[in-house]
Amino acid sequence: MLGRLFGASRYVWNWALARRSQAYQTDKIKLNWVSLSREFTALKAAPGTAWLGELPREPFSQVLRDQERAFGNFFAGRARYPRFRRRGSRVRVRFTLDQRREQVARGVDAERWAYVQLPGLGRVKLRRTEALEGRLRSVTLSRDGAGRYFAAITADGVELTEPPAARTHAVGIDVGLRTLVVMHDGEQARAIPAPKALSGKLARLRRYQRHQSRQWAAQMRAQGLDPAKPVPKGVRLGMSRRRLRTRARIARLHAGVADLRGDALQRASTGVVREAEVIALESLRVKALARSMGRRGFRRSVADASLGALRRQILYKGAWAGRQVVAVDPFYPSSKTCSNCAAVNTALKLEKHWVCLTCGAQHDRDVNAAKNLRAEGLRMLADLSPATAERAGSDAREVACAAEAAERATVHPLQRRPTMNREPAQRSAQAARPARTETRQALSQTARRRVRAGL
Ligand SMILES: [Zn+2]
Q: Is 174 a residue of the active site?
């Protein structure tokens, strides 16, 4: 039933999107969700699509509302034009929970299970990873590429937990691949290593990908096609049982790699936020992200993607804990500047260790960068006093953004900070998506570079 529901919600999303585009192109009218719901009712009565009527209707009105919001974001310039959902992409359906009667059996603390009663689906059993507190508002069920099912429950009226006290005043953090995070607190450095289990998974992934291409070529030959050429248009390749199995294995591994990576990033960002009152980090390098995926670009682009995810997490977790997060100017040469004498070593490439030609100081690349970022972040904060606030530009916005978020967090004290480091199901859609593409990019070229990249 859930499988049908996921498929149907994708169908309804794509149908509504097509209707909107069509109405705009032919009649220059913008359809809203009210008129779309009306059309949807007619669609359910139509002979070809009557199967929609057999499913619970709640998720479909949510889909239409979600799309309305997506268009709102697009028109406000906050997001791209909503896209069609492909088969095999992550799907989710949301149910609003009735406030008048209890739909969720929360289970006592000793139990690991909860039950939710959903219209049309009956009683769904959930493994609990959180205590279910407060007024439960909605349940979102989803299935990822590896066929795992998740439920995310929103609630309000949950007590806010006290943020932990910071250990030190300020840290600079450098994000990389060899070590996920290197922090410097002004006196000493601390490193958070990248997960070790990743390399084993990546090796296995490469093996399965070899199987896949062999099985794909075999299928081509079986259908009288040349495996060296692309599949001609209109031809559908058959799916053997072996190919299906390989595909499932690859999907599971992708999911496992994404989990490991996501979990490591969550732990790292939590660790960083616990550490200090002021957190200085590099700005996202927009240029580096736009750069093509050359051999050189690979390491940097993966690091940038991780940096992006970590940055987002540090920003919001920092806001919860009332920290100041400073993004240092992307053009500040944090790696190439000597933290001892401030000379810039323009000849520095990717060396792990280097010696300053001006003062002779010996540097670990990442520790030096973290040290510099800390100093630069503190300098920027001092500069951000009202008198000189104009010149800081985009960085000032960054600080303001964190501060504003912190304010919002205090305005609604009933929202509890979600527990960190839990199941991937708790990650929001926006957070999960970039992480996925990033892993894909990383995986397509992994093994050859694995050793060099230190994964
Ligand atoms: Zn120096």
A: yes
pLDDT digits 0-9 by tens, 420-441:
433 343 334 333 333 333 333 3
Gap from CA of 454 to ligand 1 centroid (Å): 28
pLDDT, tens digit, 9 for 90 and up, residues 402-417: 444 444 333 333 333 4
Catalytic, 259? Answer no
Q: Average pLDDT over the chain, rounded to whole?
A: 77
| pLDDT exceeds 70 at position 397 | no
pTM: 0.64
- Distance, CA 335 to ligand 1 centroid (Å)? 12
Q: Which residue has the higher pLDDT, 187 or 293?
A: 187
pLDDT reported for residue 194: 77
HSE-CB for 97 with a 13 A CA cutoff = 22
Q: Which of 68, 282, 304, 395 is catalytic?
A: 282
Distance from C-alpha of 132 to C-alpha of 159, rounded to nearest angstrom: 12
144, 275, 366, 376: the catalytic one is 366
pLDDT bin (cut points 50, 70, 90) of residue 304 is low
Residue ranges per structural domain of the chain: 2-89, 93-156, 168-202+242-430
366 is an active site residue = yes
* Of 68, 174, 185, 395, catalytic: 174
pLDDT tens for 43-84 read 988 888 888 888 888 889 889 999 999 999 898 888 889 999
pLDDT at position 290: 39
